[in-house]
Amino acid sequence: MSETGREIVGMLADERGLSAEKISPSSRLLHDLGMDGDDAVEFFQSLQERYGTDLTNLYQHWGDYFGPEGFSCWNGLIILPAAVAGGVVAGLLDLGAMVGFLIAVVLLVAWYWAIHRVTPDPLQPITVAEVVSAAEAGAWPDK
Does pTM surpass 0.70? Predict the structure, then answer.
């Protein structure tokens, strides 16, 4: 790996709280390293400051690679019914609030698993190797 590559792996390791040995050129920023939202913005700002990389092409297609930061109102459409169902089941069976909470959590996990099993991930991955390549080239490639 090039010197630039080692430096970028070091930046990612610091950003994500990982050891550099756990990050490979094929590691995906979002899917493997969990970098999304504000974390991704801050990382790419640091990359731009350090290497002068033109990230205009990346920023124009940001939503293709990373999701929004924070809580989506669509999550409420999943969380509220699960909470109500957990509360109703626990109330009908006189199981208590903690069991109702656990039922709601199980329903949420099952829903999350089912949705991610059925629908493909719409976000395109960015690998460490792609970041290194862009830094060395001085610009993010055009899509």
Answer: no
